[in-house]
Amino acid sequence: KHKQHGVNVQLLADPVGRLVWASPALPGAVHDMSAARTVGLIDALTSAGGTIRTPFKRHRHRPGLSRSQRDVNRAHARIRAIGERAVATLKSWKVLTKLRCCPHRATAIVQAILVLQLIEEGRYSG
Fold first, then answer.
1. Closest Cα partner for 20 from 10, 30, 34?
2. Do the Cβ atoms of 64 and 74 come closer than 8 Å?
3. 73-85, pLDDT tens digit by residue?
4. How do residues 101-111 score in pLDDT, each as one tens digit?
5. This prediction's pTM
6. Of 18, 52, 57, 17, nearest to 37 (Cα)?
């Protein structure tokens, strides 16, 4: 439709919202959960004792969400905002706005940006 390649990159952020890890780029048509499964992110998180959480969704034929469900969604949004900060950091690199290549080449570019970002923040360990 857009006649351009899109990519899907999964990120991990620390509790402050700084980039920690970036997955290899996958085609943009790949769903986020499928991408997380493909790169082994879900298995790594669950084996370390973590959980994958999704917000409650209101269905068309049911009444609105309960108060507890809205509270859970609000807490989920606060956690998600930290990850979105990491995504914004990655997107601030202008080279990604003009990126029109296959996912394989995009992987090298995203990994290089991650290293440069860690150097810029003084967190690169070699």
1. 10
2. no
3. 999 999 999 999 9
4. 888 899 999 99
5. 0.79
6. 52
